[in-house]
C-alpha cells in the first residue's frame, strides 16, 4: 500500500522507494570494454547501471592496468572524498590497502565487502597488481574532492 509520494520517493510503510522509472539492463562479459577513468593506474568497465537507473546509481568493475604492474607505491590516490550518498565495493581479486578517516589503515582481500560512509576522507595507499573490485555509488554523477 502506498502511503504517499513526495519528491519522487514512494513511501511504503516505513520503507522509501524511488519513483524514478528504471530500465532493464544486462552487461555481458563477452562484450565488455575497459576504459580510462578517475585514477590513471586503473581501468573501468561501466556496467550500464547509471543509464538504467536514470543516474541514481553507478556500478563499475575497476582493475589495475597492465602498464602499472610492479611498484605498489605508485598506486596511491592521495586523500580525497567522493561526494556521494552511498559507496560500497567488493574485492573480486587481489588486495587493496586504504587509510580511512577515523578507522585507520585497513587491508581488504578477495571476497571482502566495504561500505564506506558518505564522503568519508580516505586514501588508497597500495594494491596488488591483480586488484579488481566491483564498486557501486549513488548518485552516478558526483564530485571527488582532494583534501
Would you kindly provide a written description of the structure presented here, covering whatever features stand out?
By secondary structure, the protein is an all-beta fold. It has a single domain, classed as Jelly Rolls (Sandwich), CATH 2.60.120.10. It is about 5% helix and about 45% strand. It contains 1 helix and 14 strands, in the order βββββαβββββββββ. The chain has one helix spanning about 50, and strands at about 5, 10, 15-20, 35, 40-45, 60-65, 80, 85-95, 95-100, 105-110, 115, 120-125, 130-140, 145. The chain has a 6-stranded antiparallel β-sheet. Strands 1-2-3 form a 3-stranded antiparallel β-sheet, with no helix packed on it. The longest helix is centred in the middle third of the chain and has 4 residues, at about 50. The mean pLDDT is about 85.
